[in-house]
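# step 3/5: fold
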Amino acid sequence: MADTPVIGIIGLGNMGMPMATNLVQAGYEVYGFDVNAKAELEFAAVGGKTGLTVAEVVQKTDVILTSLPSPDIVESVFTGLDGILEHARAGQTVVDTSTVTPQLNERLARASQAKGIGYLAAPVSGGVVGAKNRTLTIMVGGPKELYDSVYPVFMALGQNIFHVGERVDSGTAVKLINNLLIGFYTSAVSEGVALAKQMGLDLDLLFDILNVSYGQSRIYERNYKSFIAPNDFAPHFSLNLLLKDLRIAQEMAQQSGLSLPITAELLAIYEQSQEAGFGEQDMAALYAYICQSQSAVQS
Protein backbone atom coordinates (compact mmCIF):
# COMPACT_ATOMS: atom_id res chain seq x y z
CA MET A 1 0.00 0.00 0.00
CA ALA A 2 1.17 3.55 -0.75
CA ASP A 3 2.54 5.59 2.18
CA THR A 4 -0.41 7.94 1.74
CA PRO A 5 -3.15 5.84 0.18
CA VAL A 6 -5.81 7.22 -2.09
CA ILE A 7 -9.15 6.53 -0.45
CA GLY A 8 -12.57 5.73 -1.82
CA ILE A 9 -15.71 5.87 0.28
CA ILE A 10 -18.97 4.31 -0.84
CA GLY A 11 -21.95 5.83 0.97
CA LEU A 12 -22.10 9.54 1.79
CA GLY A 13 -24.97 9.46 4.25
CA ASN A 14 -25.28 10.67 7.83
CA MET A 15 -22.09 8.85 8.84
CA GLY A 16 -20.25 8.50 5.55
CA MET A 17 -20.31 12.19 4.70
CA PRO A 18 -18.58 13.49 7.84
CA MET A 19 -16.09 10.60 7.74
CA ALA A 20 -15.24 11.35 4.11
CA THR A 21 -14.96 15.07 4.91
CA ASN A 22 -12.56 14.39 7.77
CA LEU A 23 -10.37 12.29 5.51
CA VAL A 24 -10.15 15.18 3.03
CA GLN A 25 -9.31 17.57 5.86
CA ALA A 26 -6.61 15.15 7.05
CA GLY A 27 -4.90 15.52 3.67
CA TYR A 28 -6.04 12.38 1.88
CA GLU A 29 -7.15 12.30 -1.73
CA VAL A 30 -10.69 10.95 -1.42
CA TYR A 31 -13.13 9.72 -4.05
CA GLY A 32 -16.75 9.48 -2.91
CA PHE A 33 -19.80 7.74 -4.32
CA ASP A 34 -23.45 7.90 -3.31
CA VAL A 35 -26.69 7.12 -5.11
CA ASN A 36 -27.88 10.54 -3.94
CA ALA A 37 -26.51 13.15 -6.34
CA LYS A 38 -27.05 15.91 -3.77
CA ALA A 39 -24.71 14.12 -1.35
CA GLU A 40 -22.02 13.95 -4.01
CA LEU A 41 -22.37 17.67 -4.68
CA GLU A 42 -22.02 18.37 -0.97
CA PHE A 43 -18.88 16.24 -0.78
CA ALA A 44 -17.38 17.90 -3.86
CA ALA A 45 -17.88 21.27 -2.16
CA VAL A 46 -15.51 20.25 0.65
CA GLY A 47 -12.82 18.92 -1.66
CA GLY A 48 -13.93 15.38 -2.41
CA LYS A 49 -13.79 13.88 -5.89
CA THR A 50 -17.14 12.68 -7.21
CA GLY A 51 -19.10 11.97 -10.38
CA LEU A 52 -17.75 8.44 -10.79
CA THR A 53 -19.26 4.97 -10.70
CA VAL A 54 -18.44 2.48 -7.95
CA ALA A 55 -16.19 0.69 -10.43
CA GLU A 56 -14.28 3.89 -11.22
CA VAL A 57 -13.88 4.74 -7.53
CA VAL A 58 -12.45 1.26 -6.91
CA GLN A 59 -10.06 1.54 -9.84
CA LYS A 60 -8.64 4.88 -8.66
CA THR A 61 -8.09 4.06 -4.98
CA ASP A 62 -5.97 1.99 -2.60
CA VAL A 63 -8.27 1.76 0.42
CA ILE A 64 -12.06 1.57 -0.01
CA LEU A 65 -14.41 2.30 2.88
CA THR A 66 -18.10 1.51 2.84
CA SER A 67 -20.73 3.16 5.04
CA LEU A 68 -24.09 1.69 4.09
CA PRO A 69 -27.47 1.25 5.80
CA SER A 70 -28.21 -2.48 5.56
CA PRO A 71 -26.59 -5.88 5.06
CA ASP A 72 -28.41 -6.38 1.74
CA ILE A 73 -27.05 -3.13 0.34
CA VAL A 74 -23.53 -3.91 1.60
CA GLU A 75 -23.58 -7.34 -0.05
CA SER A 76 -24.88 -5.88 -3.30
CA VAL A 77 -22.23 -3.15 -3.40
CA PHE A 78 -19.48 -5.69 -2.73
CA THR A 79 -20.58 -8.65 -4.85
CA GLY A 80 -23.14 -7.33 -7.32
CA LEU A 81 -22.70 -6.52 -10.98
CA ASP A 82 -20.12 -3.71 -11.25
CA GLY A 83 -19.54 -4.02 -7.49
CA ILE A 84 -16.36 -3.54 -5.51
CA LEU A 85 -14.99 -7.08 -5.81
CA GLU A 86 -15.56 -7.26 -9.55
CA HIS A 87 -13.20 -4.34 -10.11
CA ALA A 88 -10.84 -4.49 -7.14
CA ARG A 89 -7.23 -5.60 -7.66
CA ALA A 90 -4.88 -7.66 -5.55
CA GLY A 91 -3.24 -5.58 -2.83
CA GLN A 92 -6.17 -3.23 -2.25
CA THR A 93 -7.89 -3.03 1.12
CA VAL A 94 -11.63 -2.77 1.72
CA VAL A 95 -13.02 -1.68 5.08
CA ASP A 96 -16.72 -2.02 5.83
CA THR A 97 -17.81 0.38 8.58
CA SER A 98 -21.47 -0.65 8.28
CA THR A 99 -23.27 -2.73 10.89
CA VAL A 100 -24.05 -6.07 9.26
CA THR A 101 -24.33 -9.73 10.24
CA PRO A 102 -21.26 -11.72 11.29
CA GLN A 103 -22.07 -14.19 8.52
CA LEU A 104 -21.86 -11.44 5.91
CA ASN A 105 -18.48 -10.36 7.30
CA GLU A 106 -17.24 -13.91 6.83
CA ARG A 107 -18.60 -14.22 3.28
CA LEU A 108 -17.09 -10.92 2.19
CA ALA A 109 -13.76 -11.78 3.80
CA ARG A 110 -13.61 -15.08 1.90
CA ALA A 111 -14.61 -13.45 -1.38
CA SER A 112 -12.00 -10.70 -0.88
CA GLN A 113 -9.26 -13.15 0.08
CA ALA A 114 -9.93 -15.18 -3.07
CA LYS A 115 -8.95 -12.11 -5.11
CA GLY A 116 -5.96 -11.14 -2.98
CA ILE A 117 -7.82 -8.20 -1.44
CA GLY A 118 -7.54 -7.30 2.24
CA TYR A 119 -10.83 -7.06 4.15
CA LEU A 120 -11.59 -5.55 7.55
CA ALA A 121 -14.96 -5.26 9.27
CA ALA A 122 -14.80 -2.03 11.25
CA PRO A 123 -18.21 -0.86 12.54
CA VAL A 124 -18.24 2.47 14.34
CA SER A 125 -20.02 4.01 17.31
CA GLY A 126 -20.46 7.64 18.31
CA GLY A 127 -23.20 8.78 15.98
CA VAL A 128 -23.22 11.75 13.66
CA VAL A 129 -21.66 13.99 16.31
CA GLY A 130 -18.78 11.57 16.76
CA ALA A 131 -18.31 11.28 13.01
CA LYS A 132 -18.17 15.06 12.65
CA ASN A 133 -15.84 15.57 15.62
CA ARG A 134 -13.50 12.66 14.82
CA THR A 135 -14.33 11.04 18.14
CA LEU A 136 -15.74 7.77 16.83
CA THR A 137 -15.06 4.43 18.45
CA ILE A 138 -13.98 1.98 15.77
CA MET A 139 -14.19 -1.77 16.44
CA VAL A 140 -12.05 -3.67 13.95
CA GLY A 141 -12.05 -7.37 13.18
CA GLY A 142 -9.53 -8.96 10.84
CA PRO A 143 -5.79 -9.56 10.40
CA LYS A 144 -3.66 -7.45 12.77
CA GLU A 145 -1.11 -6.72 10.05
CA LEU A 146 -3.83 -5.32 7.80
CA TYR A 147 -5.29 -3.33 10.71
CA ASP A 148 -1.87 -1.80 11.38
CA SER A 149 -1.56 -0.71 7.75
CA VAL A 150 -4.93 1.08 7.86
CA TYR A 151 -4.51 2.50 11.37
CA PRO A 152 -3.53 6.03 10.19
CA VAL A 153 -6.80 6.18 8.23
CA PHE A 154 -8.74 5.11 11.31
CA MET A 155 -7.02 7.84 13.33
CA ALA A 156 -8.35 10.45 10.90
CA LEU A 157 -11.87 9.23 11.72
CA GLY A 158 -11.96 8.51 15.43
CA GLN A 159 -10.38 8.66 18.87
CA ASN A 160 -10.90 5.15 20.20
CA ILE A 161 -9.57 2.54 17.80
CA PHE A 162 -9.68 -1.12 18.85
CA HIS A 163 -8.38 -4.22 17.14
CA VAL A 164 -10.88 -6.66 18.64
CA GLY A 165 -9.42 -9.82 17.15
CA GLU A 166 -8.21 -11.75 14.13
CA ARG A 167 -11.71 -13.07 13.52
CA VAL A 168 -13.25 -10.79 10.94
CA ASP A 169 -16.61 -10.73 12.75
CA SER A 170 -15.20 -9.89 16.20
CA GLY A 171 -15.68 -6.13 15.90
CA THR A 172 -19.18 -6.67 14.57
CA ALA A 173 -20.07 -8.78 17.61
CA VAL A 174 -18.98 -5.95 19.91
CA LYS A 175 -20.92 -3.38 17.86
CA LEU A 176 -24.10 -5.47 17.97
CA ILE A 177 -23.84 -5.81 21.75
CA ASN A 178 -23.30 -2.06 21.95
CA ASN A 179 -26.44 -1.40 19.93
CA LEU A 180 -28.41 -3.95 21.91
CA LEU A 181 -27.60 -1.92 25.01
CA ILE A 182 -28.56 1.28 23.16
CA GLY A 183 -31.93 -0.30 22.42
CA PHE A 184 -32.50 -0.96 26.11
CA TYR A 185 -31.26 2.49 27.17
CA THR A 186 -33.46 4.24 24.61
CA SER A 187 -36.50 2.30 25.79
CA ALA A 188 -35.71 3.03 29.44
CA VAL A 189 -35.23 6.76 28.76
CA SER A 190 -38.45 6.90 26.74
CA GLU A 191 -40.55 5.23 29.42
CA GLY A 192 -38.86 7.05 32.29
CA VAL A 193 -39.34 10.50 30.78
CA ALA A 194 -42.91 9.64 29.75
CA LEU A 195 -43.60 8.62 33.35
CA ALA A 196 -42.09 11.86 34.64
CA LYS A 197 -44.28 13.85 32.24
CA GLN A 198 -47.34 11.91 33.41
CA MET A 199 -46.43 12.74 37.03
CA GLY A 200 -46.18 16.45 36.23
CA LEU A 201 -42.44 16.68 36.89
CA ASP A 202 -40.16 19.33 35.40
CA LEU A 203 -38.34 17.31 32.75
CA ASP A 204 -35.30 19.60 32.63
CA LEU A 205 -34.93 19.38 36.40
CA LEU A 206 -35.35 15.62 36.21
CA PHE A 207 -32.47 15.47 33.74
CA ASP A 208 -30.26 17.64 35.96
CA ILE A 209 -30.92 15.37 38.95
CA LEU A 210 -30.51 12.06 37.15
CA ASN A 211 -27.45 13.32 35.32
CA VAL A 212 -25.61 13.31 38.68
CA SER A 213 -27.23 10.05 39.81
CA TYR A 214 -26.90 6.43 38.77
CA GLY A 215 -29.70 6.96 36.26
CA GLN A 216 -27.33 8.97 34.10
CA SER A 217 -26.32 7.61 30.70
CA ARG A 218 -24.95 8.95 27.44
CA ILE A 219 -28.12 7.83 25.71
CA TYR A 220 -30.26 9.75 28.21
CA GLU A 221 -28.20 12.87 27.52
CA ARG A 222 -28.29 12.34 23.76
CA ASN A 223 -31.97 11.50 23.48
CA TYR A 224 -33.24 14.09 25.92
CA LYS A 225 -31.05 17.08 25.12
CA SER A 226 -30.95 16.72 21.34
CA PHE A 227 -34.41 15.32 20.59
CA ILE A 228 -36.96 15.05 23.39
CA ALA A 229 -36.47 18.49 24.97
CA PRO A 230 -36.58 20.41 21.65
CA ASN A 231 -39.32 18.06 20.38
CA ASP A 232 -37.39 17.54 17.14
CA PHE A 233 -36.86 13.96 16.02
CA ALA A 234 -35.09 14.55 12.70
CA PRO A 235 -32.94 11.44 12.41
CA HIS A 236 -29.28 11.15 13.29
CA PHE A 237 -29.74 7.41 13.84
CA SER A 238 -33.18 6.32 12.81
CA LEU A 239 -35.44 3.99 14.71
CA ASN A 240 -35.47 1.76 11.62
CA LEU A 241 -31.69 1.37 11.77
CA LEU A 242 -31.73 0.58 15.47
CA LEU A 243 -34.43 -2.01 14.92
CA LYS A 244 -32.34 -3.56 12.13
CA ASP A 245 -29.37 -3.88 14.49
CA LEU A 246 -31.50 -5.30 17.31
CA ARG A 247 -32.79 -8.00 14.98
CA ILE A 248 -29.26 -8.87 13.91
CA ALA A 249 -28.14 -9.01 17.56
CA GLN A 250 -31.01 -11.34 18.39
CA GLU A 251 -30.12 -13.52 15.39
CA MET A 252 -26.47 -13.62 16.52
CA ALA A 253 -27.57 -14.75 19.99
CA GLN A 254 -29.85 -17.45 18.58
CA GLN A 255 -27.13 -18.80 16.31
CA SER A 256 -24.75 -18.97 19.27
CA GLY A 257 -27.33 -20.96 21.25
CA LEU A 258 -28.28 -18.17 23.65
CA SER A 259 -31.86 -17.09 24.37
CA LEU A 260 -32.47 -13.38 25.09
CA PRO A 261 -36.07 -13.25 26.35
CA ILE A 262 -36.10 -9.57 27.33
CA THR A 263 -34.67 -8.64 23.94
CA ALA A 264 -37.64 -10.37 22.29
CA GLU A 265 -40.02 -8.09 24.20
CA LEU A 266 -37.88 -5.06 23.39
CA LEU A 267 -38.03 -5.88 19.69
CA ALA A 268 -41.82 -6.00 19.85
CA ILE A 269 -41.93 -2.44 21.23
CA TYR A 270 -39.70 -1.12 18.45
CA GLU A 271 -41.67 -3.00 15.81
CA GLN A 272 -44.90 -1.46 17.12
CA SER A 273 -43.39 2.02 16.96
CA GLN A 274 -42.21 1.35 13.41
CA GLU A 275 -45.70 0.21 12.40
CA ALA A 276 -47.08 3.40 13.97
CA GLY A 277 -44.98 5.49 11.57
CA PHE A 278 -41.97 6.43 13.70
CA GLY A 279 -39.39 4.38 11.81
CA GLU A 280 -37.86 7.18 9.77
CA GLN A 281 -37.50 9.44 12.81
CA ASP A 282 -34.58 9.34 15.21
CA MET A 283 -34.55 6.43 17.64
CA ALA A 284 -35.36 8.91 20.42
CA ALA A 285 -38.84 9.17 18.87
CA LEU A 286 -39.68 6.00 20.79
CA TYR A 287 -40.56 8.49 23.54
CA ALA A 288 -43.07 10.20 21.24
CA TYR A 289 -44.56 6.82 20.35
CA ILE A 290 -45.01 5.91 24.03
CA CYS A 291 -46.66 9.26 24.75
CA GLN A 292 -48.93 8.87 21.72
CA SER A 293 -49.87 5.34 22.79
CA GLN A 294 -50.70 6.56 26.29
CA SER A 295 -52.88 9.35 24.90
CA ALA A 296 -54.75 6.82 22.77
CA VAL A 297 -55.37 4.61 25.82
CA GLN A 298 -56.65 7.54 27.89
CA SER A 299 -58.98 8.72 25.14
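# step 4/5: annotate
The chain has 14 helices and eight strands.
# step 5/5: archive (pending)
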